Amino acid sequence: MSAPILSIRDLRVSFPTPAGLVRAVRGVNFNLEPGELVGVVGESGSGKSVSFLSIMGLLPPHAQVSGSAILAGQEMIGVDRDTVRRMRGKKVAMIFQDPLSALNPVQRVGAQIVEMIQSHQHLDDDAAHARAMELLDLVGLPQPDVRARQYPHQFSGGMRQRVMIAMAIANDPDVLIADEPTTALDVTVQAQILDVIQEIRRMTDTAVVFITHDLGVIARIADRVEVMYAGNCVEKAPVGDLFAHSNHPYTRGLLASLPVVGRDRLSPIVGAPPNMLAPPEGCAFRPRCPHAADECRGASGELVQAGPTLSACVRISEIGVSR
Length: 323
Known about the structure:
Elements: E1 6-17, E2 20-32, E3 37-41, H1 48-56, E4 64-71, E5 74-75, H2 81-87, E6 92-95, H3 99-102, H4 109-118, H5 125-138, H6 144-147, H7 157-168, E7 175-179, H8 187-204, E8 207-212, H9 215-221, E9 224-229, E10 232-238, H10 239-245, H11 249-256, E11 304-306, E12 309-311, H12 316-319
Helix pairs in contact: 4-5, 4-7, 5-7, 7-8
């Protein structure tokens, strides 16, 4: 297997607040292979977006970040802003959840793409404009020459997201981070955006991190899945194995809460995610877990092999490994 294009080790992110220190990410380890699409799933507040915003250097200045994130051979944690700026857009790019707020409302769409191109490539205005037209056409935006002269408010949500994708791939990054890019879109447009991301990945061999709370989306597009809860990964597996043989009670709870044809009732996960000012001792899922026992208080959170998945549950042998 080739070396990971992105390797994260013991990533920790905390935010000082008047009430105390919010430990949003607590020792995440993550590998991304070239050309791979990994889905990162979990409830809101699980640390999904914060983990990857830290790599992009997009967290607020007061954030406390430690650990390591090696991207294409370059450390991204604890380096100077100029280094991060050189990598951002060229080696790693991000598609944000809300394209309307991510795009400049008073600048034409084509000019924003040209600016992204020229920030990393020494192209004159004509060459950069031609490249922008190619990108808009590549992401399936009709009449790119006309659309390039328009402003973001003149676009639908799906069209704005296509513009964001065009900007993200403008400099052929090695890694594309898609942060819930389909959340605000209807189902039809959502499917179109997923197709665009898949096509871009096929054509450019860009590795993709797809952050979402929607397991249905992950089932459709991901190669592997990493499930996050309370700032850490609790289970990881190839996508087929995770859906057929999940072993962590939290993952099983997520799957049981999905609507399925023939299922009479949904089974929600009881309770709420923990307060990250004071996470529970041991397994953070313990207060909500139907299989919790005293030994869970001392759980380290280490991922161990459980059937076809890696799971952080210390009671796998008691609750039954899914084969």
